[in-house]
Amino acid sequence: MVKTAPWLKDLRGTIKRTYGPGWVLEERSGCFKIQRRETGNARQGKRPTITTSIAFAPSSSTEVLVLIGDLKRKMADLGIGLYASHELISGAPEDEATGGTNWNEVAKRYETSRVGTGQVKASTYEREERRRIERSIELICAKGRGAANDGPGVMRNYTSQHLADLKLGGVGRKRALLDVSRFLRFAVKKCGADSVYLPLEGEDLEELIGLAETRKEDKVPVKPDQLFVLIDSLCDKPELRLAVTLVGLFGLRPAELKAMRVVDGKLKVGNVKRNRATAKTPKPDRIAYPLELPELAGAAGQALAQLESGLVKLPTGIVNAPDFKNCGHSFRQYLDRHPYWAALVKTNPGMSPYSLRHGYAYRGALAGIPLRQLAASMGHDVRTHMKHYGQWTDEAGLDAAFGEANAKLTASLTERQ
User: Fold this and answer.
1) Rounded to an integer, what distance in angstroms lies between the CA atom of residue 354 and that of residue 244?
2) Each residue of 95-105: pLDDT tens digit?
3) What are phi and psi of 119, to 5 degrees?
4) Which of 136, 113, 59, 409 is closest to 276 using CA atoms?
5) What percent of the chain clears pLDDT 70, i.e. is strictly above it?
6) Cα 193 from Cα 358, distance rounded (Å)
7) What pLDDT does 112 receive?
């Protein structure tokens, strides 16, 4: 029987007193092998085992104690096993000067994860996320009073220093905090940063984002008469007229001007909504059906013929836009420079280029098109349609709808009499 060395016996006892039973220390190839035996587990199976790079020697006792403490914390905080915990610790980027986390290396790995896996475009990361991550690291590495020593502190300091001018509950405030939250979670769960840097979640996060001070107004649709005058006012600008006609009569998202083509006389539109779900299972192209205006009979067919033949092209800024988002921006810029559109926006608070798409939904409802078919032509589901496109009404619309209904009821009663 091999006698256990006194130093190893002492180390095992210290670990048991400090971290509880179940930790088994042995030697493998001159290094420490660590096993985890779950107490109360009657099953006889292979125990989780890791082999470290720590030399199996008395001088390594402190290092082993520190490692087991780190392993236990990771396992408890993140709900992971021995293998995953050790892999996380051994792969953690370390700052040679301080011995802590190398946050700049974490940022590099985070960018690779975001861009390299297609979760976000490189241009989008550069434009929106990079500065937020850099500011987060500045807060983490700050010294003195007010420094952030944990994830919640980073998020609160970020909010007070960089989001004070953004309205409570606004999209900008929410996106910034979600980016910071995602980065901190990545640092802890993928790069081995201390679990104190886990971000705020749930109600605590919602409290930082805040509630919108005023109810978000429903989008104002472009009414049929307004759309007619808008298209008619663009006779001397055929390129922009073509773009407005396609968006208005086919109910397109402005960005879809860069993702459409004519096939067998119909307008096929590709997917421009990019997120994690659609990246895995992208939606197939859809057919967008026109809703004509009585005053512009045949305008939709004419627009398709122009688009297919190339006799009239879309505006240069739209054609050359590097991505869908910039395509939408270009469309807005062209419209904003047009006098009649500027007058419409001034007299109709809440109107935007997207109001052309809302106008399509409005006309479709008035025409009695079944909701499922209308939503399919617009490229979303019925729930989305009702939430964003089916709520708007005004007094004139109510007067017309109920006036027509009451006229039919009166006529029906008269016929019976």
Assistant:
1) 11
2) 777 778 899 99
3) -65, -30
4) 113
5) 90
6) 47
7) 92
